[in-house]
Write a structure and sequence with these properties.
single chain; 272 residues; alpha/beta; binds NADP nicotinamide-adenine-dinucleotide phosphate
Length: 272
């Protein structure tokens, strides 16, 4: 059997949990493949990788910070889902073409639905308007939320997304005001990530039934989540989203759909 290669490309990439996750599935399903982490370094290096990896036996790659938008631009073909957000986190190399998809939308949707929030959230405030935010906005809209707000340090980025997706922009200075009607708070900034300062935000006025999601995966519990958990609110870190976006990636490359998401999340929770 021919050895197939797949990888995640980002910069920095050292902290990525994707190699451990996909390697677990590669072993479990007896696939002749390997999944590595590649430092994309800069935009020129990333372009070069996307041009040369297919001829080196790569079936495709996952793309992470900061190359998701560039990946989208470099594709020969894109799925409707990738088009809806303008970023690609999954590339499949097929017949000399680069095909781009976005599995972060489905990943976030599945993670949110696994929280089984009751009553279902109707309002959400998204903190951050970087590369991860558009997929989360689309996922929330698909999940039927009625009111979605977005706030970002660089206001122009929140306003651009608010206009594009018809949601409400909130000033950064007002990020912790009027939280009383918010059912779901989502941190999509890199604040709170290992090596970064915590998200400076007072969320004590969220209602008791509100849930807090931080899509960061390292550490497993950011200060934001710790505070929310201590107040008795439901919380979720970024690992369920990571696992749920990885499932369709694995399926796209190898034709096998892993179906052990809870065990895979637990496996990642146990990693350092
Ligand atoms: P990004 O495109 O680099 O965006 C970073 C965001 O953080 C921007 O909104 C940025 O605001 C904000 N930010 C950074 N430093 C800040 C500071 N000092 N003060 C205020 N805001 C600050 O990154 P991304 O791709 O959106 O990823 C963001 C996080 O999500 C990362 O931790 C990443 O690992 C995680 N993520 C997780 C998953 C998952 O599956 N769990 C998927 C995707 C991403 P400005 O616009 O003002 O710079």
């Amino acid at each position: 059997m021919v050895m197939r290669h797949v990888a995640v490309i980002g910069h920095p990439i050292g902290q990525s949990k994707s190699p451990a996750l996909h390697t677990r599935w590669i072993k479990a399903h007896g696939v002749e493949a390997d999944y590595t982490a590649i430092d994309g370094k800069d935009e020129d290096s990333f372009r070069e990788l996307i041009r040369t990896l297919p001829e080196k036996g790569y079936a495709g790659v996952n793309v992470t910070i900061p190359f998701k938008q560039l990946a989208f631009e470099l594709c020969d073909e894109r799925t409707e889902r990738a088009e809806s957000v303008g970023t690609a986190n999954l590339l499949v190399f097929h017949d000399g073409k680069v095909i781009g998809d976005n599995t972060d939308i489905a990943g976030f949707r599945a993670a949110l639905s696994s929280m089984a929030l009751d009553p279902a959230p109707r309002t959400a405030r998204i903190i951050g308007a970087g590369g991860a935010a558009p997929a989360i906005i689309v996922a929330l809209k698909e999940s039927g939320l009625e009111r979605i707000e977005i706030t970002n340090r660089t206001a122009s980025k929140a306003i651009e997304l608010a206009e594009r997706f018809e949601i409400k922009p909130i000033g950064w200075a007002a990020r912790d005001t009027k939280l009383g009607e918010i059912d779901l708070l989502i941190n999509t900034t890199s604040l709170g990530m290992e090596g970064q300062p915590p998200l400076d935000m007072f969320v004590g006025s969220l209602p008791p039934h509100a849930a807090v999601i931080d899509i960061i995966t390292t550490p497993r519990e950011t200060d934001l989540l710790l505070g929310a958990r201590e107040r008795g609110q439901k919380t979720m870190n970024g690992l369920p989203m990571l696992v749920h976006q990885a499932v369709p990636s694995f399926e796209a490359w190898f034709g096998i759909r892993p179906d052990d998401e809870p065990a895979a999340i637990e496996f990642l929770e146990g990693l350092k």
